[in-house]
């Protein structure tokens, strides 16, 4: 059991903050369950840094499928990186998603599962999808611990979180 604190992330919007980082028990339990639900046809997992990386690690270990991390900053050692801007609900600021060109061949022509902790506005998901499709991968599944706000039937999730309105901000 975990209590999720309700925290404001934007004017008039609060979220029940789910942070798996450092929570071995939740990461392991969620990863095992999502690995069980992963379609057999999936070749490779793709996850954005940073909160979902340990989750992708567990799903990878359980399923035997490799995972690729999409970074939030471009690194000097990256070869021909592919980048997209995204506005995240939790930061409210534009941020980058960057695929190292070194990883392109692991995605091209493959069936990809996107792994994330929470799928909320769908901004990160859309940008990840664009990057994966640009390099010739097919997004065949999206797995997350939670969906949030609107219903997302295309996402395999273990639960759903509400978004909170202005009345939650004062508490
Ligand atoms: N409730 C939430 N907890 C953690 N990260 C999030 N990103 C979007 N919604 C979130």
UniProtKB/TrEMBL annotation:
Xref: InterPro entries: PRTase-like, PRTase_dom
MF terms (GO), sorted A to Z: glycosyltransferase activity
Phosphoribosyltransferase domain boundaries: 27-155
Keywords for this protein: Glycosyltransferase, Transferase
Pfam families: Pribosyltran
Entry-linked PANTHER family: PHOSPHORIBOSYLTRANSFERASE, PHOSPHORIBOSYLTRANSFERASE-RELATED
Name of this chain's protein: Adenine phosphoribosyltransferase
């Amino acid at each position: 059991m975990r209590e999720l604190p309700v925290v404001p992330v934007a004017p008039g919007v609060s979220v029940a903050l789910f942070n798996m980082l450092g929570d071995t028990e939740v990461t392991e339990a969620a990863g095992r369950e999502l690995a069980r639900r992963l379609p057999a046809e999936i070749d490779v997992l793709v996850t954005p840094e940073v909160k979902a990386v340990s989750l992708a690690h567990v799903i990878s270990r359980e399923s035997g499928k490799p995972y690729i991390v999409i970074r939030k900053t471009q690194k000097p050692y990256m070869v021909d990186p592919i980048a997209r801007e995204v506005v995240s609900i939790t930061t409210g600021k534009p941020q980058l998603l960057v695929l190292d060109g070194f990883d392109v061949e692991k995605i091209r022509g493959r069936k990809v599962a996107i792994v994330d902790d929470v799928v909320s506005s769908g901004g990160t998901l859309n940008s990840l999808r664009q990057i994966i499709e640009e390099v010739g991968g097919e997004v065949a599944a999206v797995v997350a611990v939670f969906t949030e706000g609107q219903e997302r039937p295309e996402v395999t999730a273990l639960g759903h979180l509400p978004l909170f309105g202005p009345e939650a901000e004062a508490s």
